[in-house]
Design goal:
- Chain A: One of its GO terms (cellular component) is cytoplasm.
- Chain A: It catalyses: (1S,2R)-1-C-(indol-3-yl)glycerol 3-phosphate + L-serine = D-glyceraldehyde 3-phosphate + L-tryptophan + H2O.
- Chain A: Keywords: Amino-acid biosynthesis, Aromatic amino acid biosynthesis, Lyase, Pyridoxal phosphate, Tryptophan biosynthesis.
- The complex is a heterodimer.
- By secondary structure, chain A is an alpha/beta fold.
- Chain A is built from 15 helices and 14 strands.
- In chain A, the strands form four sheets. Chain A has a six-stranded mixed beta sheet, with helices on both faces.
- A nine-stranded parallel beta sheet of chain B has the order 5-4-3-2-1-9-8-7-6.
- In chain B, strand 6, helix 8 and strand 7 form a beta-alpha-beta unit.
- The longest helix of chain B has 20 residues.
- The relative contact order of chain B is 0.17.
- The chains are: A alpha/beta, B alpha/beta.
- Chains A and B meet through helix 1, helix 8 and strand 11 of A and helix 3, helix 5 and strand 6 of B.
Chain lengths: 408, 267
């Protein structure tokens, strides 16, 4: 049964519905224990969203603490190298803590305080969400526990160190593939036992309703700024907008404000890994099928029995077998074109941006750069391609050195 | 009347309570699972729960999760599990229900799942990640096939919501004793009895309590308000000792353990 094929109209900004559905996707598939917390979160978030004081406090924090608006940067030499459209970068890498993740964690930390909860838990893959959560919690003085797969702890040592310096407890997850998916499972389990006092700051547009909506809304500042900056610079919207998709939070935040602008092409880039074979990539929108994982109905990499498949990416932040339900909705409505980028192409894109522009992109963002370069190369020079540079690459330096040595 | 309804009608007539053990399918092998199910039924279990291993179980504690991982590492498939069930249920007096993630049901196809499970003699399903709001379509399929859909109530469930769940649950209501994951615990929450008593007064559907139950003292306490108790991790942990001990030894020990709890339940 594939409910996704039913009743899909054109993608609109008016999702989710009251039950957390994006077309057929989304919803809540969680243990009963969590429903009260999710109901409470839904109500409190709706109140916060409508509360000018809440929005003003968040806006002030984003400006003074994060450094927003983030720059809109013309990558001239990279554009010349591609020989096509002009590439512009939405510089989330220069945010405080080095990635887009801080936009969401500050918003959710404010919600935590608003709900009167005393403790925060989070999960992290690449560590950027963990660092951003630890930072927001340090800012507000909230105790914080971050779950992280052992494999990711190995790959992202600098971020683990940062989280500890910021006062967070990092709990290694040793089950399953020891990556992001297992970290989410453990965080959900913790939440089951501590739901009365703890808020779970989910790091992407995944999970049960209302998380995909909350994270998208907090990340929409990226696309809203890019829209304004594009209109200010060119007097028009960009021709294409490109972002990488793991769970899909930077892409959701980047795309959402452009959803009703039909003339803007939106391109989501999944982790193509080593090959198209199952287990070699992390591209559920490209190769997966609709199913349930981590509390929502969305595209998932699963076997014929519904068991979640192991996935692979050189980028810890994209190494996830599911994707946010709104992306599934955008895929099936045709509003966003999803493609994938192989590990090696992402490494090449990393080098290209580093050498042409003096910017080290995160390995996650390198996937978007690779696909964005292709899009730009296929278009005339008067067109504009905006790529979301979701995070900076310092955290990946050691892993890139290892990967380059392997390639030689 | 479904086979589970019949069990609870008979228990009530005899003023007895249900003992419901849980075992993980395929840990350590489907042959052993079949043998232990038959043993548990023979020893006087009222209903048996068969856990279908899932790669990402959120509600389960470390003991059951590890058993799922062991089973999946052996490449156990749903078709093999149902085939085993089909051979085992004719030799059991206790009806068999599956504890199964909705991810697996959805992938198999909800109608197909119910058809195949029924064909294997399975009487119902507990779907821990299918909330009452999302269960409408599947509940209809279950009802049309006289297949029990056992729903869960937890300490965080509001009373209004508990009534909605009680209205749609068939077979019995699975009352989760603690806000948390599965696993043995030494103490049960203080307000558990009061909460179950209240629900007991509101519905005719039998109420069985699970999560954290492992000792005869728990059972003696809970039988005052519940129609039965569910024991999972304590059994799965014993099953994991196969290897250190022989299969026969462990199956007999699990049977003895079940009998101790059944005696405490009905003394």
């Amino acid at each position: 049964m594939n409910p996704a094929s039913e009743s899909l109209g054109p993608a609109s900004a008016n999702v989710p519905d009251a039950s957390g559905r994006y077309g057929a996707f989304g919803g809540r598939y969680v243990p009963e224990t969590l429903t009260r917390a999710l109901d409470e979160l839904t109500v409190e978030y709706a109140k916060a969203k409508a509360d000018p004081a809440f929005q003003a406090e968040l806006d002030q924090l984003l400006q003074d603490f994060v450094g927003r608006p983030s720059p809109f940067y013309h990558a001239k030499r990279l554009s010349e190298k591609c020989g096509g459209a002009q590439i512009w970068l939405k510089r989330e890498d220069v945010n405080h803590t080095g990635a887009h993740k801080i936009n969401n964690t500050l918003g959710q930390a404010l919600l935590t305080l608003r709900m009167g909860k005393k403790r925060v838990i989070a999960e992290t893959g690449a560590g950027q969400h963990g660092v951003a959560t630890a930072t927001a919690c340090a800012h507000f003085g909230i105790p914080c526990v971050v779950y992280m797969g052992e494999e990711d702890i190995r790959r992202q040592a600098p971020n683990v160190f940062s989280m500890k310096l910021l006062g967070a407890e990092v709990r290694p997850v040793t089950t399953g593939s020891r990556t992001l998916r297992d970290a989410i499972n453990e965080a959900m389990r913790d939440w089951m036992s501590s739901v009365e006092t703890t808020h779970y700051i989910l790091g992407s547009v995944v999970g049960p309703h209302p998380f995909p909506q909350i994270v998208r809304d907090f990340q929409s500042v990226i696309g809203s700024e890019a829209r304004v900056q594009s209109l200010a610079r060119f007097g028009r919207l960009p021709d294409s907008v490109v972002a990488c998709v793991g769970g899909g939070s930077n892409a959701a935040g980047m795309f959402y404000p452009f959803i009703e602008d039909k003339e803007v092409e939106l391109v989501g880039v999944e982790a193509g890994g080593r090959s198209d074979l199952a287990g070699d990539h992390a591209s559920p929108l490209t190769f997966g099928s609709p199913g349930v994982l981590h509390g929502s109905y969305s595209y998932v990499m699963q076997d014929e029995d519904g068991q979640t498949c192991d996935v692979h990416s050189i980028s810890a932040g994209l190494d996830y077998p599911g994707v946010g339900p709104e992306h599934s909705y955008w895929k099936d409505t045709g509003r966003v074109r999803y493609t994938d980028c192989k590990d090696n192409d992402a490494l090449d894109a990393f080098d290209a941006l580093a050498s042409c522009e003096g910017i080290l992109p995160a390995l996650e963002s390198s996937h978007a750069i690779a696909a964005g370069m292709k899009v730009a190369a296929s278009k005339p020079s008067d067109q504009i391609v905006v790529i979301c540079l979701s995070g900076r690459g310092d955290k990946d330096a050691a892993e890139i050195a290892r990967l380059k040595a392997e390639r030689q | 009347m479904s086979s589970i309804d019949q069990v609870f009608a008979d228990l009530r007539a005899a003023n007895r309570k249900a003992f419901i053990p849980f075992v993980t399918a395929g840990d350590p092998s489907l042959d052993v699972t079949s043998a232990v199910l038959k043993e548990l039924s023979k020893r006087g279990s009222s209903v048996c729960e068969l856990g279908i291993p899932y790669s990402d179980p959120i509600a389960d504690g470390p003991v059951i999760q590890a058993s799922y991982t062991r089973a999946l590492d052996r490449k156990i498939k749903l078709s093999q599990i149902l085939e085993m069930a089909g051979k085992t249920t004719p030799e059991m007096t206790a009806p068999l229900v599956t504890m199964v993630s909705y991810a697996i049901i959805l992938r198999h196809g909800p109608e197909q799942y119910v058809r195949d499970a029924k064909a294997a003699g399975v009487a119902g399903a507990i779907v821990p990640d299918l909330l009452v709001e999302e269960s409408g379509d599947f509940a209809k399929i279950c009802k049309a096939n006289d297949f029990s859909l056992i729903q869960l109530v937890t300490p965080t469930t509001s009373r209004e919501r508990a009534l909605r769940i009680a209205e749609t649950s068939t077979g019995f209501i699975y009352y989760v004793s603690v806000a948390g994951i599965t696993g043995e615990r030494t103490q049960l929450p203080a307000d558990l009895l009061e909460n179950v008593s209240w629900l007991r007064s509101q519905t005719k559907v039998p109420i069985c309590i699970g999560f954290g139950i492992s000792q005869p003292e728990h059972v003696r306490t809970l039988k005052k308000v519940a129609d039965g108790v569910i024991v999972g991790s304590a059994i799965v942990r014993r099953m994991s000792e196969i290897g250190e001990k022989t299969e026969e030894q462990v199956i007999a020990e699990v049977g003895d353990y079940a009998e101790t709890l059944i005696e405490a339940l009905n003394e």
